[in-house]
Amino acid sequence: MESHGSIEGMDDLRHRLDYLTLVTEALWSFLLDHGHTEAELLDRINEIDLSDGRLDHRHVHLVACANCGAAVTTDHCQFCGTHIHDVFAPV
Ligand SMILES: [Zn+2]
């Protein structure tokens, strides 16, 4: 059984996803108005997707934990507990 907080969290995520979808549709409409094609969009999506080393429909910004060296995606190292904002270093 989900807690009340989890339901509110899901509602907030759904609202944010809906808004991001709306923003994306608006941006895409500008590109269509300027003659860009869906093929160009897909090429750019793949280019950005691959920029983190993986073609996995995600673009993940990895940072190195300065304490243990692990590559992490959050502001909190899941391996040693260090707050990454305190010791930020690009991978
Ligand atoms: Zn660490």
> How many domain regions?
2
Strand order of the largest sheet: 1-2
Instruction: Give the structural class.
Output: mainly alpha
Strand content: under 5%
Number of strands: 2
Give the tags:
single chain, 91 residues, mainly alpha, two-stranded antiparallel sheet, 4% strand, binds zinc ion
Describe it.
- The termini are far apart.
- A two-stranded antiparallel ribbon has the order 1-2.
- It is mostly helical.
- It folds into 2 domains: 1-56; 61-91.
- Strand 1 (63-64) and strand 2 form a beta hairpin.
- The protein has 2 helices and 2 strands, in the order H-H-E-E.
- It has helices at 4-33, 38-50; strands at residues 63-64, 71-72.
- The chain is flat, with a radius of gyration of 18 Å.
- 2% of the residues are buried.
- The longest helix is centred in the N-terminal third of the chain and has 30 residues, at 4-33.
- The structure holds zinc ion.
- Zinc ion binds at residues 65, 67-68, 70, 77, 79-80, 82.
Break the fold down into its secondary structure elements and pairings.
Blueprint: H1 4-33, H2 38-50, E1 63-64, E2 71-72
Antiparallel strand pairs: 1-2
Bound molecules: zinc ion.
Zinc ion binds next to loops.
